Amino acid sequence: MAEQDKNTPQFDAATGQSTTGHDWDGIQELNTPLPRWWLGIFYATIIWSIGYWIVYPAWPLVTDVTRGVIGYASRIDIAQDMALLKQERAAQSKALTEASFEQIKADPELFRIAMAQGKAAFGDNCAACHGVGGGGAKGYPNLNDDDWLWGGSFAEIQKTLEHGIRFAGDPDTRVSQMPAFGRDKMLDAAQIRAVANHVRSIAGLSTEPKADLAGGAKLYADNCAACHGDQGKGNREMGAPDLTDAISLYGMDMASLTETITNSRNGVMPAWQQRLDATTIKALTVYVHSLGGGQ
């Protein structure tokens, strides 16, 4: 008898609509069918999807996709557009490649092309480290000033871009190596602090009240002058920074200087000739040179 009652349709007294038989705290769910217009659209989309699978590329395969009866793919359009763009820019690229930096700078049209292409390449490849405007950050050089580790001429910038800095995959990469004076036990903590105070003093910055400046100067002469120079002016051939201008890649405060002297710094820049073509590197060179620190 219970089973018969369960299978017998029940109706809502207020609306006369059949119910699903579900009951929640005395509330019954009406068995209301979906609107016919909604069902029609739903079935139409199913038919449309089947047609789409047949006409357009849709189903992924192991190494490819189904091509569809019309063989259309948006990637084909993109490839055609890119080929047309390269063809249109071929003459410009050739002129840019063959011209010297001096010729590019002297020719307004060539300079405009180089700047546009260089700015795009900078945004895609360099801005992540150096910032959108080339202002840099701690550990990443500011390209807007005239403080260059390796030189700011066209030729020097191009070489840095092509071969990178301490980039293991390029035998001609720029290489500089500062000893880790503390980590390798060449100087103790007091001596490192004395050298750090000396560096701040030659940069025109304040030093600690009881700093051993005489001892720091002696330690500097014995350990640092070979690369940074007797006066601390640096050496671009070795990538040794100028210590007298109060500009430092990692900071000139006591904590940063102590860390640098203790453990050294070994930042890496990619060798872009392995990723960018010669024309793009030339345009990028022109753009970086124009940021304000080019020589």
TrEMBL record:
Co-factor(s): heme c
Compositional bias (Polar residues): 7-21
Gene expressing this chain: ccoP
Record note on cofactor: Binds 2 heme C groups per subunit.
Residues covered by region (Disordered): 1-25
Pathway given in the UniProt record: Energy metabolism; oxidative phosphorylation
Entry keyword annotation includes rRNA-binding: no
TM region(s), chain numbering: 37-59
Localization per record: Cell inner membrane
UniProt KW Cell division keyword: no
The organism's place on the tree of life at top rank: Bacteria
Pfam families named in the record: Cytochrom_C, Cytochrome_CBB3, FixP_N
Family: Belongs to the CcoP / FixP family.
Organism from which the protein derives: Bosea rubneri
PROSITE patterns: CYTC
Protein name, per record: Cbb3-type cytochrome c oxidase subunit
Cytochrome c domain residues: 113-203, 211-292
Key words of the record: Cell inner membrane, Cell membrane, Electron transport, Heme, Hydrogen ion transport, Ion transport, Iron, Membrane, Metal-binding, Oxidoreductase, Repeat, Respiratory chain, Transmembrane, Transmembrane helix, Transport
Physiological role: C-type cytochrome. Part of the cbb3-type cytochrome c oxidase complex. FixP subunit is required for transferring electrons from donor cytochrome c via its heme groups to FixO subunit. From there, electrons are shuttled to the catalytic binuclear center of FixN subunit where oxygen reduction takes place. The complex also functions as a proton pump.
Binding partners and assembly: Component of the cbb3-type cytochrome c oxidase at least composed of FixN, FixO, FixQ and FixP.
